[in-house]
Write a structure and sequence with these properties.
By secondary structure, the protein is mainly beta. It contains one helix and five strands, in the order βββββα.
């Protein structure tokens, strides 16, 4: 999994499957785009206008439970 923030476009992208090309994108809610591969698996999600939706765009915390 990889998270990329582009300050020029103000888009945060979280990539779940880097090896699968995006075949279809849906704007689930305004500003939230889900990207799917040809089999319908979620590949990535994009958050538009991220700086207005996310508290901190310059850091990320990753936590595993269990």
């Amino acid at each position: 999994m990889k998270a990329v923030y582009d300050p020029e476009t103000d888009i945060l992208t979280i990539i779940f499957r880097d090896d699968s090309p995006v075949a279809e994108s849906d704007e689930e809610k305004p500003g939230l785009i889900l990207d799917y591969d040809e089999e319908g698996n979620l590949v990535s999600l994009e958050i538009l206008d991220a700086s207005s939706r996310i508290t901190e765009t310059k850091s990320i915390e990753f936590k595993m439970t269990g």
